[in-house]
């Protein structure tokens, strides 16, 4: 089974998560940002984040009304020094969450 912790869980905001950003992001609506961290039986961890943001993009209108625009989304992720430090940080801020490689349970 898979253990998931969503943004409403009291420990979610204290859990370590990879630091990342969208380079073209101008603004994010905080109330429209949701996240889930999942722990799978083989020891893997995944993070899913959903957000509503305003992004910047330069437009070229020289061929208007037949112009076509192309915008980029650049995701920048900062790396951790080691995987062991990453796992230790993840669980040190959420003492009420336990992970067992042999069995993961939502109970």
From TrEMBL:
GO cellular component: membrane
Domain spans labelled Neurotransmitter-gated ion-channel ligand-binding: 12-80
Entry-linked InterPro entries: Neur_chan_lig-bd, Neur_chan_lig-bd_sf
A Pfam family of this chain: Neur_chan_LBD
Superkingdom, natural source: Eukaryota
GO molecular function: extracellular ligand-gated monoatomic ion channel activity
Protein's UniProt name: Neurotransmitter-gated ion-channel ligand-binding domain-containing protein
Organism: Alexandrium andersonii
């Amino acid at each position: 089974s898979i253990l998931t912790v969503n943004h409403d869980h009291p420990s979610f905001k204290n859990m370590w998560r990879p630091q990342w950003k969208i380079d073209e992001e101008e603004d994010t609506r905080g109330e429209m940002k949701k996240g889930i961290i999942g722990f799978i039986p083989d020891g893997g961890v995944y993070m899913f984040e959903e957000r509503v943001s305003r992004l910047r993009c330069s437009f070229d209108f020289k061929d208007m009304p037949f112009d076509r625009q192309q915008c980029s989304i650049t995701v920048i992720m900062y790396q951790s020094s080691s995987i062991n430090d990453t796992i230790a940080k993840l669980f040190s801020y959420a003492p009420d969450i336990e992970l067992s490689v042999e069995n993961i349970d939502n109970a």
